[in-house]
Design a protein that fits this description.
Largest sheet: 7 strands, mixed
Order of helices and strands: HHHEHEHEEHEHHHEE
Helix content: 40-55%
Number of strands: 7
Oligomer: single chain
Distance between the termini: 30 Å
Number of helices: 9
CATH class: Alpha Beta
Structural class: alpha/beta
Number of domains: 1
Shape: globular
């Protein structure tokens, strides 16, 4: 299933090597290895549903032709390109911690012929000091928040760089509310995704990490509470595909 990587900081937590717990070295190594086959696994594992999830995220961001957007955890650039084609903002700054992922994104940006200016930058999503306060109309992140050892730091930084009334849209795998769906989903994550990822990429361990990280991630209500604690208002979430993913929308 899709996985876009955000920047992370080294964790001193003694449990840092638990399955699914992110550390900077682990995330960079995993996604550096799978970058060349990343998009193909995403399409196969999600049966193409990931495209619709990104379209919904772009719609919820409510950008205009004069908007400036910061895309965190951009990975290979799929959410960036969906934003450019559908939202058509004036500018998108597309960031990620893993250069190998941005290299793939760069090919998509080079082929783009639309009106949006797109720039790529290596950035730590928990420390956005290169961007001034109140400099973006929208901030987005697709499938990267769960790779952050310190989510509150990212939420505070997203809040800081947003202009007043700006929106932070978080697209992420989450916990289906129906127990039957949740059981089937967890079976799929633990068996099908690692096997498929291993066949296509040759790196089963990387996709086992993705399974573990999804299962460690908090439920929708908890993530909404974390966003409120960071200072966001009007926080709400939209479950998609029976709740296997959700888009959280928070306003500065």
């Amino acid at each position: 299933m899709p996985e876009d990587v955000a920047g992370v900081s080294v964790s001193a937590d003694p449990d840092a090597e638990e399955p699914g717990r992110p550390t900077e070295s682990k995330v960079k190594a995993i996604f550096g290895r799978i970058a060349p086959t990343y998009d193909l696994v995403n399409i196969l594992a999600s049966a193409g549903l990931d495209r619709g999830w990104r379209r919904r995220t772009v719609k919820l961001a409510r950008v205009g032709v004069d908007s400036r957007v910061l895309d965190l955890a951009a990975g290979t650039g799929d959410l960036t390109m969906a934003m450019a084609r559908q939202g058509r903002p004036a500018e998108i700054v597309s960031t990620d911690l893993v250069p190998e992922m941005l290299k793939v994104a760069g090919k998509k940006v080079a082929a783009y012929r639309g009106p949006t200016k797109i720039t790529l930058e290596v950035a730590d999503a928990q420390d956005l000091r290169q961007f001034p306060d109140s400099s973006f109309n929208a901030v987005t992140v697709g499938f990267g928040v769960r790779n952050l050892p310190d989510r509150p730091a990212n939420f505070r930084e997203a809040h800081r760089v947003l202009k007043p009334k700006g929106r932070y849209c978080v697209l992420e795998f989450t916990r289906p509310p129906a127990s039957a769906v949740r059981a089937l989903y967890h079976w799929y994550l633990s068996t099908v995704v690692p096997s498929l990822g291993g066949i296509v990429s040759g790196d089963r361990d990387a996709y086992q990490y993705l399974n573990d990280s999804i299962r460690r991630f908090p439920a929708q209500q908890q993530l909404a509470a974390e966003l409120r604690a960071a200072g966001f208002a009007n926080v709400r979430y939209h479950d998609l595909t029976l709740g296997i993913v959700a888009v959280h929308v928070a306003t500065k």
